[in-house]
Design brief:
By secondary structure, the protein is an alpha+beta fold. Helices cover about 20% and strands about 40% of the residues. It contains four helices and eleven strands; from the N terminus they run βαββββαβααβββββ. The protein is globular and about 60 Å long.
Length: about 180
Amino acid sequence: MEEARWYVVHTYSGYENKVKANIEKAIENRHLENQILEVRVPIQEVEELRTKQTKTGEEQVWKTVQKKMFPGYVLLYMVMNNDTWYVVRNTRGVTGFVGPGSQPMPLTETEMFNLGIQAANMEVDVKSEFAVGDTVKVINGGWKDTVAQAVAINPAKMTVTITVEMFGRDTSVELNFSDVRKM
């Protein structure tokens, strides 16, 4: 079996999250979980100056917002073959893979490092790292500093699923191994 690599897909601007959801649904429907391992829309937190209306007039405040790092692009960690190429290329909203002509080009190690992506050949011993029932603390992202219990582990995608309370209900959240620490 070929090695999984990171590829970049071009999408219609503003459709990145919809494309991500469509690809994830296609992965589930076609049972490609072992070939398309991760779909990612890179985001970053930035500070924006906003004008806020108050009773005494206008007030300017800094607000932290999340913005897409690369509008119009989605990253895929996948094994490139005819099946995976076809599924991704024919997903609604995808205009094509990034690469010369119609040939998809994987990201280089340097490009992956600059994006903050772990090396593709990095192995994690899931059995010693995480287990269902472990208490974990989120160290990155929107759930930072949340302490929760691991309810599912996906070694192929290198993710752990936790349950958090949101709007009075338990909600499952899937996080990368690199975003949590075992307590």
